[in-house]
Amino acid sequence: MKEEQQRLLGDTPTGPQTYSPWNVQFLMMYALGMLMTVGFSVILPALFDFLTIELGVSHNWYGFAAASFSVTQTAFSPILGIWYDRRTAREVLVISLFVNVVGNIVYSLATNLWMVVLGRMLSGAGFANIGVARAVFAACPEKKVQKTCNVVMTGCVALGYAVGPFITTIFTIPAIHFRIGKYDINEYRGPGLFSGLLSFIALVLIFILLRKERKYVRKAPTVGETNLLMVALYCAVYLSITIAFSAFETNASPLLHENYSWTTRKIGLAMSLFGLCFAVPNFFYPLMIKAVTHEIILLYISFAMAIAGCGFLTYLGGEHLPYWQFFLGAVLVGLSYPIFQTTIFGLYGSFLGIGDKQGIYMGLIMLFANMGRLVGPLWAGYAFPSTNLEKGSFGSAKLYLACLGYIFVASSAFMIGYVQIQRKRKRPNFEVASAQEQDAKLLGDH
User: Fold this and answer.
1) Which residues share a beta bridge with 185?
2) Over the stretch 76-123, which tens digit does the pLDDT of each residue have?
3) Which pTM value belongs to this model?
4) Distance from CA of residue 327 to its chain's centroid?
5) What are phi and psi of 185, to 5 degrees?
6) What residues contact residue 435 under an 8 Å CB cut-off, 6+ apart?
7) How far apart are CA 429 and CA 427, in angstroms?
């Protein structure tokens, strides 16, 4: 039985184990994160125009259509995590990527709102595999390698957010449009097909190259060893930041379109620049860690940046948000999210320790992240129609005020919980040391 498990998981039972953030298994996870994020972000700048111009759907349905992706992503994150714990990453990723490919094809060929929703839901179910990639990193026993993997993965995801919207602008060039039967593959439908192509490339790469994977199996943390309240606080604070980021991500495109009369091409370029803001912190993350001496301080800095960004995006007067204020808020939100994401995964992985239930625990926090990607677009969709596009932005103000308040409450609770956990963790070490000193003293007396 043990030999069969080792054969299935690709373990090496003999010889010293070496860990590198650049082995084939980890490289495939980076490629997955990059390709999937490009596929996601290439669609978002064009989604509003696809619904309202191409299909003639009311803009009131925009938030619902954007959030449908996250409904299934939220539902399937823990399912794929449990599946990964029992089987292999290769099996989970290949099947989930196939579902994503089908979803993107359905979206590209949509003729009504409900086909768009169905396509986005299928794509979301496939996109839930990002949690599996994070679980692969979290299962590595070497913490330094684990942290490097998370930094590289977040950098790949960030580059995906920058590259995707730029590709959207390329699809606005009429010369590259073509037809498939009765469908015009243009700036609205082209991004969906391109996203499906990227998912198919990722599927082929993982199927061919990830034939032998190493799965690190150790004693899992029990309920007594893993503080469930702290797990809940990690999940809650991740939820708060993701709501703010996804709300901005969803709201930015229609606001630029309606308030500033921007075209799909200009919106794509702007979103690409925001994506670069998302990528920049990852290149300087090691330097930032050295500057602040501890990851938790960097996490608190990301909280402050997110709160400030939401504050700048909150505006109650004038005709609409001034350019400088909108872009300053966007940059702060864009910079805060990658710093937060890289730091939270490093802290969370260290907090959990090494166990054979990494898929479940990572799936749990990804579930809350995906809930943020569900709530954020829904809330943005509710706020956007209530925005008076001529005489103010009260709907958007309510949106970002709510995000600001939730981040403040969740981050405050997290800080208190983190301090308490650190105190409890230090106490047993002190007691053990005291007992050892007493034993040594007794032996010396004898």
Assistant:
1) 178
2) 888 887 888 788 888 899 999 999 999 999 999 998 999 999 999 999
3) 0.69
4) 22
5) -85, 95
6) none
7) 5
Q: How many Å apart are CA 401 and CA 396, to the nearest integer?
A: 8
- Alpha-carbon gap, residue 142 to 354, rounded angstroms: 9
- Reported as a single tens digit per residue, the pLDDT across 127-145 is 888 878 877 887 777 777 8
Range 18-211+222-432 has CATH code 1.10.3720.10 = no
How far apart CA 411 and CA 66 sit, in angstroms, is 27
Sequence-distant (6+) residues with CB within 8 A of 178 are: 185
Return the amino acid letter for 144: K
Residue 171: both structure tokens together: 């699809």
The amino acid occupying position 174 is P
**Where are the domains positioned within the chain?**
18-211+222-432
d(CA 370, CA 325) in angstroms, rounded, equals 28
Q: How far apart are CA 382 and CA 378, in angstroms?
A: 6
Residue 318, pLDDT score: 58
* d(C-alpha 250, C-alpha 340), whole Å: 19
Q: Name every residue whose Cβ is closer than 8 Å to that of residue 114 and which is 6 or more positions away in sequence.
A: none
Q: List the beta bridge partners of residue 183.
A: 180
Which residues are paired to 184 by β-bridges? 179
In terms of residues, how long is the chain?
446
Residue type, 245: F
